[in-house]
Amino acid sequence: MLDHLLILTAVMLVSGILGGLVNYYQMLFTEEDPAGLARCLILGLCGALLVPIFLKFTQSDLLIEIQGDPSRLLLFTGYCLLAAIASRMFVFNAARRQLHDASIARARVEHLEQELRTMQLEMMPLLEYEIEGDPERGPALDFNQIRKLDDNALQVLSQLNGGECVFRSLSGMVKDSGMETNTIARALSSLLVLEMVGKIHSHLGIRWYITGKGRQVVHRRSTQTA
Question: What is the mean pLDDT of residues 29-49?
């Protein structure tokens, strides 16, 4: 009985080593891993040593039949070698599936983060408009820049500040003001450089809004003319 167990153990160990070497030389063509040999040998041995459990689950009498028919040992050896070779397939396929799922989840998280950043950028002008700021901590005004503003730029600022919508389209501003499209576009470009207006790229297209600095300019001009 002891000799029988030693023979079966030796078969499983040799089959596990052979299966691990087969997996290692197959892996060299597609992967570079310094610990690949040790990993393949361990997986092969584990796969071969699990064969008796597999036979037990399938209610096979192969281990007992080997005692009466030594030729059945060849079949057991084949099972062990097959399990050793297949061990890498199951383990690496599972690892690849996990990596693939992780990459998909990471891509979804990055997409959600990008959408949140875009939403935050779109909401900031609205929050600045609805929440009263601190005049002492407001953006500093450069009076030289204010003096350079022409009537068109000031009219655009007033329109953005007094409109019903926080975010305005170029076509809507042209329609309400009666000014030419090129005139308003040039005014918006100059105001954008001065950080008196901002723009967002929404799903409806480009929309313009007045910043806190722009509102201060409108407020200052209104107090001067009052």
Answer: 75
Task: Tell me the torsion sign for CA atoms 181, 207, 217, 157.
Answer: positive
pTM of the model: 0.42
For residue 38, how many C-alpha atoms fall within 13 Å in the half-sphere facing its CB? Answer: 3
Place of tokens 């199951």: 90
Query: Burial letters for 158-173: b for 16+ Cβ neighbours within 10 Å, e otherwise?
Result: bbbbeeeebbbebeeb
Four-CA torsion 106, 107, 110, 111, nearest 10 degrees: -140
Which tokens sit at 76? 């057991």
Report residue 131: phi and psi, to 5°: -100, 130
Residue among 212, 76, 47 at smallest CA distance from 136? 212
Q: How far apart are the first and last CA of the chain?
A: 111
User: 141: pLDDT confidence band, cut at 50, 70 and 90?
Assistant: low
Residues listed for the chain: 226
For residue 198, what is the enclosing H or E element? Answer: strand 197-202
> What are the pLDDT digits (tens) for 151-197?
888 888 888 887 677 788 888 888 887 888 888 888 888 888 887 88
| Residue environment code for 175-186, b if the CB has 16+ CB neighbours within 10 A, otherwise e | eeeebeeebbee
Residue 32, pLDDT score: 59
